[in-house]
């Protein structure tokens, strides 16, 4: 996401070399979804660059490749998994959790494959699983069995909250596109570990997005009081204002729990005159 075009020159300096964009993003937010790894395992040199651009306490939630989760459906993917784990080693402590996003066709009948896969994973990492089949949200027995699988290995259940998006018909092209692609699932809030992770998708209208996350701001304040360390990823269909919204969510949590430290001021998108390049 740190290369998202609408942010360049508005939130992030432009032009900016690709190997400096994450560094600039990290002045706005202290966590990022590693979604590109879903499509291909990155070169180790690329991951080394990510590590160089971020502090050791920066959080990467890195998605496992689709060859493991969607194509092989967690079985017979030992070689792909080894390659992926080797590639992300340079992140070190920045690898906050490895994100196992499962397809909507992954049903309660497949829980045995998930349980076996999670048990075989190295304990040197934390794991977070995103489920998209409705049975896990509507059938208490299926939800309970999934929770047992996850808690047995200390893994978290990642909710993807799209309820605000589907509250009323779309009003923009990006919202219409999201309606055709995003899962329509009930909101789920319980945390299984001390590191809950939430993905929230609002609307392109800022106030509707903010109104929709208020229950999460209450939940995050409670989690922090309980000694947990939660991570929130804020999205909108076009993501144009996502950086600003992420910081606004942080401020909403601070309004409920003032002892939470403020985020540092982000680097300006436009360099000062002394820093701007000249011909002479």
Care to describe what's here?
There is one protein chain. A five-stranded parallel β-sheet has the order 1-2-3-4-5, with helices on one face. 37% of the residues lie in helices and 12% in strands. It has two domains: 1-157, Alpha-Beta Barrel (TIM Barrel); 159-263, no CATH class. The protein has ten helices and eight strands. The protein has helices at 18-25, 44-52, 66-71, 78-88, 111-120, 135-138, 140-151, 173-181, 206-225, 242-256, and strands at 31-34, 59-63, 95-101, 127-130, 156-157, 160-161, 197-201, 231-235. By secondary structure, the protein is an alpha/beta fold.
The rough form would be described as globular
- Average pLDDT over all residues: 94
Unreliable stretches:
272-280
| Sheet with the most strands, sense and barrel status | 5 strands, parallel
In short:
By secondary structure, the protein is of the alpha/beta class. 37% of the residues lie in helices and 12% in strands.
List the defining traits of the structure above.
single chain, 280 residues, alpha/beta, TIM Barrel, 2 domains, 5-stranded parallel β-sheet, disordered C terminus, UPF0759_sf, DUF72
Helix/strand layout:
Blueprint: H1 18-25, E1 31-34, H2 44-52, E2 59-63, H3 66-71, H4 78-88, E3 95-101, H5 111-120, E4 127-130, H6 135-138, H7 140-151, E5 156-157, E6 160-161, H8 173-181, E7 197-201, H9 206-225, E8 231-235, H10 242-256
Parallel strand pairs: 1-2, 2-3, 3-4, 4-5, 6-7, 7-8
Helix pairs in contact: 5-7, 9-10
């Amino acid at each position: 996401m740190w290369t998202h075009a609408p942010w360049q020159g508005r939130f992030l300096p432009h032009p900016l070399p690709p190997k400096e964009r994450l560094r600039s993003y990290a002045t706005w937010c202290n966590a990022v979804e590693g979604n590109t790894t879903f499509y291909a395992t990155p070169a180790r040199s690329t991951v080394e660059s990510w590590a160089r651009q971020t502090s050791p306490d920066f959080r990467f939630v890195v998605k496992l490749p689709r060859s493991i989760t969607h194509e092989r459906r967690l079985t017979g993917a030992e070689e792909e998994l080894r390659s992926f784990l080797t590639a992300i080693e340079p992140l070190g402590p920045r690898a906050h959790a490895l994100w196992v996003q499962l397809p909507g066709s992954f049903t309660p009948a497949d829980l045995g494959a998930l349980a076996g896969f999670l048990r075989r994973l190295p304990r040197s990492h934390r794991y977070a699983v995103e489920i998209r089949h409705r049975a896990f949200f509507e059938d208490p027995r299926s939800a309970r069995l999934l929770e047992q699988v996850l808690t047995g290995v200390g893994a978290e259940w990642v909710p993807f909250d799209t309820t605000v998006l589907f509250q009323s018909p779309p009003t923009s092209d990006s919202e219409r596109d999201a309606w055709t692609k995003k899962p329509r699932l009930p909101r789920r809030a319980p945390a299984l570990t001390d590191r809950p992770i939430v993905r929230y998708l609002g609307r392109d209208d800022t106030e509707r997005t903010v109104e929709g996350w208020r229950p999460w701001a209450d939940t995050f304040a409670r989690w922090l009081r309980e000694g947990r360390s939660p991570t929130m990823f804020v999205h909108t269909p076009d993501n144009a204002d996502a950086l600003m919204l992420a910081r606004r969510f942080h401020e909403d949590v601070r309004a409920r729990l003032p002892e939470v430290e403020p985020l540092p001021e982000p680097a300006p998108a436009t360099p000062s005159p002394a820093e701007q390049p000249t011909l002479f």
